[in-house]
Amino acid sequence: MEINSKNWFENPLSRVVLGLNVILLILVAVSAPAFIREYFNQDAVKIDGKKYDLSDVKKSNPIAFSKFQSEYKNLVKNALSEFAQDKLFEIVAKEKNIKPAEVLTQGFVAKEPSEEEVLQIYNQYKSQLGGKSFAETKDRIVGLLKSQQEQEFGKNAYREIVSKYPVEFLIREPEVVRVQIASKNNPSLGPDNAKITIIEFSDFECPYCKRSQDVNRRLRDKYKDKIKWVFRDFPLPFHPDAMYAHMAANCAISEGKYWDVFNVLFENSGNLAQANVDYLVTKAGLDKSKYQACMKNSSELKAEIDSDIQDGQKVGVSGTPAFFINGIFVSGALPFESFEEIIEKELNN
Fold first, then answer.
1. Contact call for residues 177 and 62 (beta carbons, < 8 A)
2. What local confidence, expressed as pLDDT, does residue 74 receive?
3. Alpha helices, DSSP H only, in 97-206?
4. CB burial of residue 250 (10 Å; 0-12, 13-18, 19+)
5. How far apart are CA 149 and CA 256, in angstroms?
6. Is the dihedral of CA 126, 127, 128, 132 positive or negative?
7. Closest Cα partner for 74 from 338, 329, 342?
8. What is Dmax (Cα atoms) for the chain?
9. How far is Cα of residue 340 from the mean position of the Cα atoms in its chain?
10. Segment holding 89, helix H or strand E
11. CB 262 within 8 A of CB 249
């Protein structure tokens, strides 16, 4: 910007204003970092007179800090979602001169279900109706079917509203927290030089771990050589058959049958009694005599599994399944899209 020097010298007021602006800028530059620190570190705890805040949590327990950030983001999004929905209803209600509560139901007329439709529902849920006859439950079933019609009408109405008045969430992304966790030559799929390394801590007896395997396979199918997937043992103490199953799986490594045993154990996750595990692993292709000899080295097998457990506990793993995507912690059997979002960001970095 060009400055008119004549006006500067002839107008004392300009000099005063500019001088005040300079002083203000200096004050802001000096005080802003302190203000920011104070603002973001308001949440704290004092222990024996010493104050600790979230930056201390991040240093000592990065996973706890990461969980806090994710949960906070979800809470913010939920609050904004409710607010956005209410605002949309206000806009549409004003536009159509109706009440906000009528926005999703305006124009809805329930269709009377046919006798065949009602009877089909009755037969489908007959065992859950406490022995009541068709005549006794017919009106209730009709009411439920009409309620479903109304819900579907409302969903379609809401889709039309959002298409007309788009909603965009502008939410600050949580700080990426990475944890250093080694593979330690545990069983893996994919190349060592893959851009993405996913380390999974899991338990063959855990129902959530079993559920997550479908998502895990989809991710490996989609990203193929872009992912190296590492499996680390984390049998939970309250799963009585888990340790034995993990020992059996580790005995499959030397025979090159680990992933065959892995799959058959998760397929039978609810039935991992020792006798059944012995049957399953030999069914998966393990040589029976070699397997029996390996299982006699129980102390060595347990030591390796305990090492995995301890490594997981050191970085905050307390339940299964737990994942580290290039060191970014993901907890639980989450939907495919949750993993996909993180992986895409990592691939594009």
1. yes
2. 87
3. 115-124, 134-164
4. buried
5. 54
6. positive
7. 338
8. 102
9. 10
10. helix 62-96
11. yes
Can you list the residues of the chain whose pLDDT is less than 50? 1-32, 35-36, 39-40
Helices (H), 165-236: 207-223
196-202 and 322-325 as β-strands: parallel, antiparallel, unpaired?
A: antiparallel
Q: Which residues of 276-299 are buried (b: 16+ CB within 10 A; e: fewer)?
A: ebbebbeebebeeeebeebbeeee
Burial class (CB in 10 A: 0-12, 13-18, 19+), 168: exposed
Q: Which one, of 80, 149, 169, 143, lies nearest residue 157 by Cα? A: 149
Partners of 189 in beta bridges? 229
Q: Is 228 left (phi over 0), alpha (psi -120 to 50) or beta?
A: beta
Q: What is the pLDDT of residues 45-94, one digit of tens each?
A: 999 999 999 889 888 888 888 888 888 988 999 999 999 999 999 999 99
Q: What does DSSP say about strands 188-189 and 44-47: parallel, antiparallel, or unpaired?
A: unpaired
Q: What is the pLDDT of residue 26?
A: 46
Give the rounded distance of the alpha carbon of 180 from its chain centre.
Answer: 20
Structure token pair of residue 124: 């489908």
Nearest to 261 by CA among 294, 308, 236: 294
Query: What dihedral angle (degrees, nearest 10) is formed by the CA atoms of 335, 339, 345, 349?
Result: 180
Query: Which of 121, 95, 122 is CA-nearest to residue 106?
Result: 95
Which of 232, 224, 272 shows the shortest CA–CA distance to 253? 232
Q: Rounded to an integer, what distance in angstroms lies between the CA atom of residue 229 and that of residue 206?
A: 19
pLDDT for the residue numbered 8: 36
For residues 124 and 118, the answer to whether their CB atoms sit within 8 Å is no
- Which of 216, 236, 220 minimizes the C-alpha distance to 323? 216
